[in-house]
Specification:
Distance between the termini: 41 Å
Shape: extended
Helix content: over 70%
Strand content: under 5%
Number of strands: 0
Radius of gyration: 21 Å
Number of domains: 2
Number of helices: 6
Order of helices and strands: HHHHHH
Length: 165
């Protein structure tokens, strides 16, 4: 039961934060000081992306479960009766599966950052839609370049923003 609380409570808190808690808190005036303090941490650890936060939490959870199984604190053998004989090996791979799912999710976030509305357009879109998609892609690339150039200029000049401390 203690182990369930140790993993379940942080999972629920992070899940609530990721699903909508962060946006809800950002709209509250009393939470402004919290976000002023936590924003540098968010940028450093998960790039202010709720998806990356969730993905990295999954990866850490998988590693912790692996360590607990390795030292004998966590026993997944109660799951064995629930599985058919040919799948008895599955519980021992559960932490690896959780970590791999987190890594895949983080990779997807960093490599596919288009809004769903742009992704769901069919390959054979009307010319006006295809032109709009190309413009959106070019705008995204220009924004990424502008941010990278700004960061490089600040690094060269030694200038820091309030959140760079």
């Amino acid at each position: 039961m203690t182990l369930l609380l140790a993993f379940g409570l942080p999972t629920l808190v992070i899940l609530a934060y990721v699903i909508g808690g962060r946006e809800w808190l950002k709209r509250r005036p009393w939470a402004a000081s919290f976000f002023a303090k936590i924003e540098p941490v968010e940028i450093t650890l998960w790039r202010k992306s709720e998806t990356i936060l969730w993905a990295r939490f999954q990866q850490v959870l998988g590693v912790v479960l692996t360590l607990l199984m390795g030292i004998g604190t966590l026993d997944l053998s109660p799951l064995f009766p629930l599985l058919p004989e040919q799948y008895k090996w599955l519980p021992s791979l559960l932490p690896l599966i959780i970590s791999a799912a987190g890594k895949v999710e983080e990779w997807n976030r960093t490599h596919t950052t288009k809004p769903v509305e742009l992704v769901e357009v069919p390959d054979k879109a009307p010319p006006a839609v295809a032109a709009a998609l190309q413009q959106a892609e070019a705008t995204k690339q220009n924004a990424v370049i502008a941010v990278a150039v700004d960061a490089a200029e600040r690094q060269v000049s030694g200038e820091t923003l309030p959140n760079d401390r």
